TrEMBL record:
Signal peptide: none annotated. SUPFAM superfamilies: P-loop containing nucleoside triphosphate hydrolases. InterPro entries: AAA+_ATPase, ABC_transporter-like_ATP-bd, ABC_transporter-like_CS, ABC_transpr_LolD-like, MacB-like_ATP-bd, P-loop_NTPase. This is ABC-type antimicrobial peptide transport system, ATPase component. Keywords: ATP-binding, Nucleotide-binding, Transport. Gene3D superfamilies: P-loop containing nucleotide triphosphate hydrolases (3.40.50.300). The keyword ATP-binding applies.
Length: 237
């Protein structure tokens, strides 16, 4: 079964890639508990492209941390591929997250001293799959995002758009169930941002599941579904 067929097969699964059930999150500030997310219910199915929008202070970053299993809720459940992450130890959760979620950040988060290939290979260091030629796979991904001639360059030798392409290739190296993109075009000019969104669109067409956090309404045109967040609540109006 080739890659596209495998993704299409996964897209028929009835198990959500990520599911938030009655999720609440607050932070202790001084003598007060400040609620950030309130009774959030959200399901993302295989093959979906979901955009999450909201104004500053709406809870988008906290919601991203919940979806990415980077933080634990005060109440409710987070299920990743049907597994309740609250039942996992921190090392177990880190391993599951590393294999099932590929992260693309606004600031790229590349390691300056590493080359393009080394940055793309980085997530495999802690989660190496047996029988996989990581170097060849990384080279294939770098070529896929159009940077074949930049494999041995370091981040400082490349533009912002090129660095984001590397970040996308890195996010794909472990064949994750979910790509989580946080403002992926936020530090790019409009032309470069369009090129990055074209890559996401192509990945979606091949069956990849994508959740994108954004404040830009133009980017929601690429998504199947838009979730509006306001004051820590999903706004269904």
């Amino acid at each position: 079964m080739d890659g596209k067929a495998a993704y299409n097969e996964n897209s028929r699964s009835n198990t959500p890639v990520i599911e938030l059930v009655n999720l609440c999150k607050s932070y202790h500030v001084g003598d007060m508990d400040v609620p950030i997310l309130k009774s959030i219910d959200l399901r993302v199915m295989p093959g979906e492209f979901v955009a999450i929008m909201g104004p500053s202070g709406s809870g988008k970053s906290t919601l991203m941390n919940m979806i990415g299993c980077l933080d634990r809720p005060n109440c409710g459940q987070v299920l990743l591929m049907g597994k309740d992450v609250d039942t996992l130890s921190d090392p177990e959760l880190a391993k599951l997250r590393g294999l099932e979620i590929g992260f693309v950040f606004q600031n790229f988060n590349l390691v300056p001293r590493l080359t393009t290939l080394q940055n793309v290979e980085l997530p495999t260091y802690a989660n190496k799959k047996p029988g996989v030629d990581i170097r060849q796979k990384a080279m294939n991904l770098v070529e896929m995002v159009g940077l074949k001639e930049r494999m041995n360059y370091k981040p400082s030798e490349m533009s912002g758009g090129q660095q984001q392409r590397i970040a996308i290739a890195r996010a794909l190296i472990n064949d994750p169930s979910l790509i989580l993109a946080d403002e992926p075009t936020g530090n790019l000019d409009s032309k470069t941002g369009d090129e990055i969104m074209k890559i996401f669109s192509d990945l979606h067409e091949k069956g990849r599941t994508i959740v994108m956090i954004t404040h830009d309404p133009d980017l929601t045109e690429f998504a199947d579904r838009v979730v509006h967040l306001k004051d820590g609540i999903i706004d269904n109006n």
